[in-house]
Amino acid sequence: MLGVFSSGVVAPPEELVAAGSRTPSPKTTAEALVNRFVSSSSPAVSVRISSDAHFAYSHTKESPLIPRSFGVKDEIFCIFEGMLDNLGSLRQQYGLSKTANEVMLVIEAYKALRDRAPYPPSHVVGHLSGSFAFVVFDKSTSTLFVASDQYGKVPLYWGITADGYVAFADDAELLKGSCGKSLASFPLGCFYSTTLGGLKCYENPKNKVTAIPAPDEEIWGATFKVEGAVFAATHY
Description:
It is a single chain. With 236 residues, the chain is α+β, with helices and mostly antiparallel strands. It has six helices and 14 strands. The strands form three sheets. It has a six-stranded antiparallel β-sheet, sandwiched between helices. A six-stranded antiparallel β-sheet has the order 4-5-6-7-11-12, covered by helices on one side. It has a two-stranded antiparallel sheet with strand order 13-14. α2 runs antiparallel to α6. The chain is globular, with a radius of gyration of 17 Å. Pfam families: DUF3700 (PF12481). It comes from Acorus calamus (Sweet flag). InterPro entries: DUF3700, Ntn_hydrolases_N, TSJT1-like.
């Protein structure tokens, strides 16, 4: 899966910008990244939402245990990879039909969080149990919401393209070709929101998430970790 967003939607993480400048490496534009994904993952679906946002996904080489799905409702776009163990109870909680899948559940959870949720986002994401990584883009407000499960069962990476777009994908090699050293593993058990305080750990929401510059020989530009947490919010 792939989601690409302009700096008008999400500010590129400073640590990844610095890593790319510290150790210059080949990069490509966001458009070239999307084209590469589509050509290498055929058959693939590419959805340009606006000049600021682009999704692409494919079922090629998909694991039956971590399927990919895409959905849109009320100008909220979501790409989801994985499975929720408690999907049945969450359907009841959000008043959804028995046929609603994970991607529609996440869209509904995001809508509740945006419009009327009595709980902080850490609770909303923390109630999701299973293997997952997802990216939500709200076209009506040009906002982004991204999250990963706390055990890294579904890989998720983010990086910065040559033209300053922030890209999220489940394939590190794909991003490496377009983002160079401006690349990192998305921290486990965390969410990123452009309207709710940036990068946060939903297991330890009061703990600061810090970035540690990686050695030059590493493919990563930085490693993100949650201070004082019982687990390191990173994976390889």
